[in-house]
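Q: Got a minute? One more chain.
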Amino acid sequence: MCLWLFAGDAVPEGVSALLASSLLFLLPDEGGKPTLTWEAACRIDWGVLLLFGGGMSLGGLLFDTGLADSLGKGLVSLLGVKTAFGTAGVYGALALVTSELSSNTASANVAVPTALALSKAVGVHPVYPALAATLASSFGFLLPVSTPPNALVYGTGRVRLKDMMRLGLALDVFGFFLIWLGLSLFRF
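A: Always. Here it is, folded:
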């Protein structure tokens, strides 16, 4: 048991993912052949996987470098937002834009803690901005990097990027206003 605890702290996540995926080449399936052959690995759409991984890295860097926090504070001060509902609009928009440039998970990891921290600094109830950021992070229909389903659909080659962007923008705008107006129905 102590070995697993030590390995969990000592081995970075990327290394453990590589080790686990390497086992697919070594462990046999029910027929005695390797679970994953080199031929099957070559047919994987690696471009889509790299696109998704890059989005996760970008989201992490936005948070680690403090760019997301600076952007949020700058937007709130620029727009002069002082209410929870206004702050929710700013963070909903920020989360939506961030989710277009990185994965939804990375966007939520950046936007929600920043929304909570800035809500306290502005002196507004944090539920509105946190909910807006959480829900808006689930959107992101514009680019293939936004969500794994977007990447999979784009990876088929049947959807043009121009069409994905045009329809995705309409869904994003509609979703933003739906979230923002939906939050106005609740009182915390």
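A: The chain has two domains: 14-44, 45-183.
Q: Perfect, thanks.
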